Amino acid sequence: MTGLTVRNLSYSYGSRRALDDVSFDVGPGRFAALLGPNGAGKSTLFSLLTRLFTAREGGIEIAGHDLARNPRAALARIGVVFQQPTLDLDLTVRRNLSYFAALHGLSGREAGSRIDAALERLGMAERAQERARDLNGGHRRRTEIARCLIHAPSVLLLDEPTVGLDAASRKAITDHVHDLSRDSGLTVLWATHLTDEIEDSDHLLILHHGRLLQEGLAGELRGSQGLRDHFLKQTAGPP
Amino acid sequence: MRHAFITLNAIVLREAQRFVRQRGRFVAALVRPLIWLLVFAAGFRAALGLSIAPPYQTYITYEVYIVPGLCGMILLFNGMQSSLSLVYDREMGSMRLLLTAPLPRWWLLFCRLVASTAISILQAYTFLAVAAAFGIRMPVVGYLAVLPALAVAGIMLGALGLALSSLIKQLENFAGVMNFVIFPMFFLSTALYPLWKMAESSTMLRDICAVNPFTHAVEFIRFALYGQFNGPALGWTVVAGAIFFLLAVWGYDPARGLLRRKS
Description:
- The structure holds two protein chains of two kinds.
- Chain A is α/β, with parallel strands linked by helices.
- Chain A has two domains: about 160 residues, Rossmann fold (3-Layer(aba) Sandwich), CATH 3.40.50.300; about 70 residues, no CATH class.
- Chain A is about 35% helix and about 25% strand.
- A six-stranded mixed β-sheet of chain A has the order 6-7-8-3-9-10, sandwiched between helices.
- In chain A, α6 links the parallel β7 and β8.
- The longest helix of chain A has 18 residues.
- By secondary structure, chain B is mainly α.
- Chain B has one domain.
- In chain B, α3 runs parallel beside α6 and α3 runs antiparallel to α7.
- Chain B starts with a helix and ends in a 12-residue tail after the last helix.
- Chains A and B meet through α1, α2 and α3 of A and α1 and α4 of B.
């Protein structure tokens, strides 16, 4: 069983090439950080991975399921946190999670116990009856992460999930998802443009102008310099 | 199969919860046809003579004539309201959650359609109850027979809203839909005046009214309210609904990349 495989993926908006022949593998249970500046093509890649739109060139395999040939099986194996918040702010935390559970075919007691477990895992159990509107940014993100765990996915896709959060919330969420990957064997693809969210043991993918510049262990790629300096050096050049 | 129905149930429930929260929307949806019924129709009663034509078996007042058209108006406006909320969901991001669910996309769109139609039917029945309170009553059997007619017409108009929502790029463009879709569709139909009355002033306008799917939706409702079945009106409504739904499925096809501008 593979985690996530992307093969020769390209995508254009009209004449503008947003992704150019991108290929990589993320093994099962690995945490991969997709690092790229704004406009690198991270969100386009996430839209293709979640089948919001489809590419004419290249292929995607999620937990062994080809996304183009078997989209339902592939989508059932992923949990997604989009960059844009997707909670219904007028619903309680629990109702937001119940709605999502139903989209994945879960209802009744089974959905209830999975929701309880997911909220407990993210430290949100006490806030289950609060309206999403009344939560702070960090708790809203935790709710979204709890939500994407309900259907026991194999692969987590998180598109800049810490955008707009304070430093403490950012660290808490980053650490938590690292723990999830380590403890539960979840494959994680974490898109970010912030180098301090990446650990040396993470699988690092540097994306720039739609092309994959580097791939490997973060600690090995950065060598003796800081990851921030390494990243800036890599992305300083013209496309 | 079970998964598909759990999802349908959740989407309908969510739309109902959203509707209950937005009481203003409910009142607005009710006030609009009531103004037409109690103000506009009262003013036109003297000016507009109506002959006896099926499904009516006796002379009727203009208020009675206009009721099915106003039910259609509720369905039309609610279909567009639903389209507006889809565009809003798309801009706000919550549409992504729905479209990444592991179900066929046409089914997810159909669930949204059923949800918005259920709300439309509820509003139409409330309107009929208020009209009855003002003395504008239909035969008792009509109140039952109109349920499937409202459902079919609601699905057709909701599918139109769904198709339009795939074409509208931004929320701001919605005013154009009002001007170019809702108003012509409503006024160029039998909602306010019968076809023969329209023919007296212009045969071309009559012909336009005759091919307007909204005309057939209104006539289907009109006949059903008197316990009668209008086969051709049903046929037109179903065919138009199927075309609009196919357009919506095409509009939301991931290969077409509807959401890419927002990514």
